[in-house]
Amino acid sequence: MIAEPRHMLQAICGLMEGSDTVSESFLPVCDDLPHTVVLTDAGPRPIEIVKLLHRQTGLSLWHCKSLISELPTRILENVPEEVATAMVAELREVGASAHSEANP
Fold it and tell me: CA nearest 30: which of 75, 77, 78?
């Protein structure tokens, strides 16, 4: 059974029974900032990079090839840190230079 949103909010905020307002000291905080993956160099195996980008992003092979011809370029935008880190690791495995940066 899924709890109603109001009851979930009360549980999260620690509201007392009978109270309908959220405490003034409660501020939602997002610790997971969206990240962007930036490809800076395709390395010695650009065909492998194109295949990886095609597989991971779903873009056409032509679009992936055009992305790596204009470096540095943003590959993924507004993704969770775990996704960005995994993508950077895969790009580095095939010889590319890439990094992820947190979006403000």
Answer: 78
